[in-house]
Amino acid sequence: MIGTSSTTTGTQHAVLWDREGAATDLGTVPSDTDSYGGFITDGGLMVGVSVLNGRRTAVLWR
């Protein structure tokens, strides 16, 4: 499952949860502050956005 979680610094990061419930922080594009997980394709690619001051960059995590 992919989604978003708050970090200890108060930002939001895209997160991938495995079947046991362990979370992996997917991070952001360098210099961005937040990221949001959107969906996982049938091929297992994770799609979302990385954000800085309202500017959004599409992200594809593998």
TrEMBL record:
<protein>
    <recommendedName>
        <fullName>Extracellular repeat, HAF family</fullName>
    </recommendedName>
</protein>
